[in-house]
């Protein structure tokens, strides 16, 4: 009889400790979830920055393409007028000036594309780092394993 009473006390004591452990585990999981949520928000910010860079890049490319097309039309018009009036040296100088301006536009476009690509790559590496942090933080799988162990131990205790 005394052994059964001691076994009952031990069982109650173990169940109480398991409940305390579950509560601590729940609090830990809640903290971890908040940290994961914070890092996911950081990822969203980085993704938004990346989208902004891509939009700026495409907007800048379209503007530069329009400028290049305008410069090409001007160069063709000047080239056409230079051919019709071969005695005028200013026409040929203007045409070559337009061509060099067109070349400068293409060069600046390439530089802006490279800068934007570098920014996007940098942001993507930051996103990858944040995802690694989230993987390290996340305890959901471990939490489930502990829950299973607790239930197995409770079953074992109840079987005694």
From TrEMBL:
Disordered: region residues: 52-111
Coiled coil (residue ranges): 120-149
Keywords: Coiled coil
Basic and acidic residues bias: start-end ranges: 54-70
Organism superkingdom: Eukaryota
Low complexity bias locations: 87-101
Designated name of the protein: Uncharacterized protein
């Amino acid at each position: 009889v005394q052994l059964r009473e001691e076994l009952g006390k031990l069982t109650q004591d173990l169940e109480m400790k398991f409940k305390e452990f579950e509560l601590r585990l729940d609090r830990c999981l809640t903290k971890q979830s908040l940290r994961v949520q914070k890092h996911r928000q950081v990822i969203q910010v980085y993704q938004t920055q990346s989208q902004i860079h891509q939009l700026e890049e495409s907007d800048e490319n379209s503007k530069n393409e329009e400028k290049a097309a305008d410069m090409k039309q001007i160069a063709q018009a000047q080239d056409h007028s230079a051919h019709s009036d071969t005695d005028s040296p200013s026409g040929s100088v203007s045409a070559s000036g337009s061509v060099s301006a067109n070349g400068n536009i293409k060069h600046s476009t390439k530089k802006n594309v490279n800068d934007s690509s570098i920014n996007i790559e940098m942001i993507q590496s930051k996103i990858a780092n944040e995802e690694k942090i989230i993987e390290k933080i996340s305890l959901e799988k471990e939490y489930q394993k502990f829950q299973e162990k607790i239930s197995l131990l409770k079953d074992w205790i109840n079987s005694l």
